Amino acid sequence: MGILYLVGTPIGNLADITYRAVNILRSVDMIACEDTRVTKKLCTHYEIHAPLKSYHDHNKEQQTEYLIQQLNEDVNIALVSDAGLPLISDPGHELVVAARAKGIRVETVPGPNAGLTALMASGLPSFTYTFLGFLPRKEKAKYTLLEQRMFEDSTLIIYESPHRVKDTLKTVQKIDAQRYVSLGRELTKKFEQIVTEDVDTLLLKLDKEEIPTKGEFVIVIEGAVADEDTSWFEDMSINEHVEYYVNQNMKPKAAIKQVAEERRMKTSEVYDIYHNV
Fold first, then answer.
1. Which of 91, 101, 247, 275 is the most buried (most CB within 10 A)?
2. Which CATH superfamily is domain 114-221 in?
3. Which residues are CB-contacts of 36 (< 8 A; sequence separation ≥ 6)?
4. Torsion 155-160-165-171 (CA) sign
5. Nearest to residue 207, comparing CAs of 177, 171, 165?
6. Mean of pLDDT over the chain
């Protein structure tokens, strides 16, 4: 049987590729890639002559079967994405599952990753993080997911297109306008930009085009910071906790949101309990 290599490729700067990755790409019989035009540039730069085979979300069912057949016939194949690590918010999962089911050897050849590159330079906590990849496009689904995740004690890493980055930040703003967020764009390229501010400030910078909406974005969101002293409400029921803030002239909606943040719960859960839904 052949070997399936999962090869990391540069996320911007073509020099960010390992010696091993170049050697593997030069030695395999075939390279499966998202966009042959993108991978062709890399191959030309490093004098890699293996034939390219298109493998993307729209043809993966048919191509998975074909590639498994080739691997069974002792053909060595490298799988790459347009940038970064294959399978990480990119196609390849079905191929790896099928290969493992057939007993085909799968080897990883590590390389750059946009999410971790942005996290390293963000200045936000990096010991515990959650990779969310691309968020749902519909606002309601996006809000629901972020509302749940933003109150966990974990830095969030998100991929976003330049066309939707403002909308996603506005969703973050609705949940917590003071939360610190880092925007990374054009990572490892000449015009790399990584800006970490509260979300209100970032939206202003985007509006003023101090942060151009060009290139793919990585959004890194600071995790929730637990209140150091939670003992004062530990003996309270959720209703009593909400009423505590209402009695301080806070509107019920704001009080529910505050309680959800302090207890690291979904706002909808606190709402349902408070209103007996």
1. 91
2. Tetrapyrrole methylase, C-terminal domain (3.30.950.10)
3. 52, 53, 54
4. negative
5. 165
6. 94
Q: Which amino acid is at 170?
A: K
| Helix, strand, coil shares, percent, the chain, to 5 | 40, 20, 40
Interval 142-160 mean pLDDT: 93
Structure tokens at 78: 């490298």
Q: What is the pLDDT of residue 227?
A: 52
Asked if residue 11 lies in contact with residue 188, where contact means CB atoms within 8 angstroms, the answer is yes
Phi and psi at residue 20, to the nearest 5° = -65, -40
Tell me which H or E stretch contains 108: strand 105-109
* The pLDDT of residue 198 is above 90: yes
What DSSP string describes 61-79?
HHHHHHHHHHHHTT--EEE
The CA distance from 218 to 223, in Å, is: 16
The secondary element (H helix, E strand) that includes residue 131 is strand 129-134
3-state secondary structure of 11: coil
Place of tokens 């690590």: 85
For residue 62, the model assigns a pLDDT of 93
Q: What is the DSSP letter of 227?
A: P
- Out of 3.40.50.300, 3.40.1010.10, 3.40.50.920, 3.40.50.620, which CATH number does the structure's domain 3-109 have? 3.40.1010.10
Q: Which residues contact 93 (CB under 8 A, 6 or more apart)?
A: 87
CA-derived radius of gyration, the chain = 23
Helix residue ranges, H only, 82-156: 93-101, 114-122, 139-149
Using alpha carbons only, give the angle 21, 26, 27 rounded to the nearest 5 degrees: 100
